[in-house]
Design goal:
single chain, nine-stranded antiparallel sheet, 194 residues, 4 helices
Length: 194
C-alpha cells in the first residue's frame, strides 16, 4: 500500500476554515525605527591609571580598599565574621546594570582565580559583587606579596602593586578575626611530631 494522495484543492478550503474569520477587526499597523528598537551596547570602561594606589584598611577593620589616597575605591575585600563560616565579599566598583553577571579574573602570585560576580545595588551605586567562604582556595590569589592584575570584562583592568595587606586580611578573616602570633602561626605550619 502506498502513501495516500489527497488533492491539494481539497486541503486549501480546510486550511482556510481552520484559520477562521474570528470576526476581529484588523490590527492597526505601527511603524517603528529599527535603529531605535535595537539595544545600545555600552562602551567598555577605560582601565584606570592605578599609579600611586594602594590597599588601605577601612576604619571598621572589616574591609580593605584598593584606591588612591582620598579617592573612591576601585576594589574592596570585605570580611563578614557574623556568618559561619566567615565569608569574604569581593567588590569591583565599576558601573553595572541590574541583572548582569560576569566572571572577574584575578591573576597573580602564581594563581589565576575567576570570581563569579553579579550586579548589586548598594547605597545608590550599581557595582559588581561576589561572596564566598573565606576558606575558598580562589582567595589564595590575594595571599602572596606579588602584583595582581584584575580584569572585569567591559570594566577595565586594575594593575595592583604587590602588597602584604590583602594576604594578611584574607588570613585574618580565615582565622575568624583572630590575630595569630608569629609563634602560633609557625607552630600550626609545622608537621605534628611522631
Amino acid at each position: 500500500m502506498g502513501a495516500v494522495k489527497v488533492a491539494p484543492l481539497i486541503l486549501l478550503p480546510l486550511l482556510l476554515a481552520a484559520c477562521g474569520d474570528g470576526g476581529d477587526a484588523p490590527v492597526q499597523g505601527q511603524r517603528i525605527s529599527l535603529e531605535e528598537a535595537r539595544g545600545k551596547v555600552a562602551e567598555p570602561l577605560v582601565s584606570p591609571d592605578t599609579e600611586g594606589a594602594k590597599w588601605t584598611v577601612a576604619a571598621n577593620g572589616q574591609s580593605i580598599d584598593f584606591a588612591r589616597p582620598g579617592a573612591d575605591p576601585w576594589m574592596t575585600l570585605a570580611c563578614n565574621l557574623r556568618e559561619a563560616p566567615a565569608t569574604i565579599s569581593l567588590v569591583r566598583h565599576a558601573e553595572a546594570r541590574p541583572g548582569q553577571k560576569a566572571l572577574f579574573p584575578v591573576i597573580g602570585n602564581g594563581t589565576i582565580s575567576r570570581f563569579k560576580v553579579d550586579a548589586a545595588l548598594h547605597n545608590g551605586e550599581w557595582r559588581w559583587e561576589g561572596a564566598l567562604p573565606a576558606s575558598d582556595p580562589l582567595l589564595d590569589v590575594f595571599t602572596g606579596p606579588r602584583e595582581l592584575e584584575a580584569t572585569l570584562p567591559g570594566g577595565g583592568t586594575l594593575l595592583i602593586e604587590g602588597s602584604r595587606i590583602p594576604g594578611e586580611f584574607v588570613n585574618w578573616c580565615r582565622a575568624g578575626g583572630r590575630v595569630l602570633r608569629t609563634e602560633e602561626a609557625e607552630a600550626s605550619s609545622d608537621p605534628p611530631a611522631p
